[in-house]
Amino acid sequence: xxxxxxxxxxxxxxxxxxxxxxxxxxxxxxxxxxxxxxxxxxxxxxxxxxxxxxxxxxxxxxxxxxxxxxxxxxxxxxxxxxxxxxxxxxxxxxxxxxxxxxxxxxxxxxxxxxxxxxxxxxxxxxxxxxxxxxxxxxxxxxxxxx
Length: 146
Hints:
This protein has one domain: Hotdog Thioesterase (Thiol Ester Dehydrase, Chain A, Roll), CATH 3.10.129. The protein is globular. It is of the alpha+beta class. The mean pLDDT is 95. The chain has two helices and six strands, in the order αββαββββ. The protein has helices spanning 6-12, 59-75, and strands at residues 24-29, 33-39, 84-96, 105-114, 119-128, 131-144.
């Protein structure tokens, strides 16, 4: 079941191609947990140089994808979310367990650890076929877009 499609996601997040790294939201427990999906295709811009002949999605972009899903979880709690923008303020305990390659479906699960009006802390786990690809504790600051 799709909770948010790509158009709805773009109504929440300020990110756009080529840096929008979540295709849809498939599960949502407001202010608690969210699951997004990223279909990884050979057409991704980063595969041109990472790595020719052996394309692998950069781990930092997997963490960014988790952060974007987490930002959706956080921003939807603000009545004036269109006036807000999330900024990374910390990444802890990042681990990369398996490569993510073209054709993979990246499942991005984020659970809120701390919610507030300004600072959000989340645990993100990215999996492919039930196997952990990457994980991290992500902290972000919610700021005004102005």
